[in-house]
Amino acid sequence: MRVKDGAAIRRRRQRQGLSQRDLAYLCRPCSQTTIYLLESGRMTTLSEALAVRLAKRLDVAVDVLFDERTPSGASQAG
Length: 78
Fold this sequence. Notes:
This protein is mainly α and 78 residues long. The chain contains five helices and two strands. The chain has helices at residues 6-15, 20-26, 32-40, 48-57, 62-65, and strands at 2-3, 66-67. A two-stranded antiparallel ribbon has the order 1-2. The chain is globular and about 30 Å long. 24% of the residues are buried.
């Protein structure tokens, strides 16, 4: 899946009072580095499973933060 806006992930995480490390722990297997890369726009794609876990922990629908379309040839974290 493709990240629509990394800053939106950061805003939602901060609204819930979570650090990047906290969110990563709640979405395990995931690392703080992955959260940082997603929020900063340095990682633009991720697995559907991780997108679902992130959206659930951030209390938002998956399609608000992520787009189903993945650019061809892009690697996915997950």
